Amino acid sequence: MSSSLLGLLLLEANIWLILVFLFKLLQNVQPLKKEAKDGCDKALEEKRKTEEKVAQAREAKDQLQKDLVNLRVKVVADVVRARGEAIVNFKNLRIYTSTDLLTIVLKFRPSSLCQF
After folding, report:
1. DSSP code at position 83
2. pLDDT of the residue at 56
3. Could you tell me where the DSSP H helices lie in the chain?
4. Structure confidence by residue, pLDDT tens digits, 18-53
5. In whole angstroms, how far apart are CA 32 and each of 6, 21, 24?
6. pLDDT for 58
7. Most distant pair of Cα atoms in the chain: their distance
8. Who's near 104: CB < 8 A, 6+ residues apart?
9. Do residues 78 and 86 make contact, with C-beta atoms less than 8 angstroms apart?
10. Which keywords does this chain's UniProt record carry (predicted)?
11. pLDDT score of 9
């Protein structure tokens, strides 16, 4: 055998060894690639769930803020109405003299309310 033929055979053997090594390496990488893909899918699913929870929390916060504004408006309206009633009642009391008030009190005493 000539040395060039021997060199070619050694080169071919080395190429086959490299191919076998790469094939084995590729077999080891495939499960890792699948694990990485599964991990990525799981992380994306967790991100989606978290985003849904954040959206729900934002909606709840917005609704609570609307409810708070509505309650504040209602309280202000109730206070204004109560103040108005108090002013009207006070003005109504001022138009009566003390004699008129005594007459009103005596007229509506409990004993007269019980008489039919």
Report:
1. H
2. 95
3. 3-95, 98-107, 110-114
4. 888 888 888 887 777 788 888 888 999 999 999 999
5. 39, 17, 13
6. 94
7. 145
8. 96
9. no
10. Coiled coil, Membrane, Transmembrane, Transmembrane helix
11. 80
Q: What type of residue is 55?
A: A
The answer on pLDDT for 15 being more than 60 is yes
Q: How much is the CA Rg of the chain, to the nearest whole Å?
A: 46
Name the token pair of 58: 């934002």
- Return d(Cα 94, Cα 91) in angstroms, integer: 5
Looking up tokens 């005596």, which residue turns up? 106
Question: Who has greater pLDDT, 88 or 106?
Answer: 88
Q: What is the pLDDT of residues 56-96, one digit of tens each?
A: 999 999 999 999 999 999 998 888 888 888 777 766 666 65
CB 96 within 8 A of CB 104: yes
State the virtual CA torsion across 75, 79, 84, 88 in degrees, nearest 10. 130
Decide: helix, strand or coil at residue 54: helix
Task: Give the 3-state secondary structure of residue 92.
Answer: helix
- Phi, psi (degrees; rounded to nearest 5) at 74: -65, -45
Model pTM?
Answer: 0.46
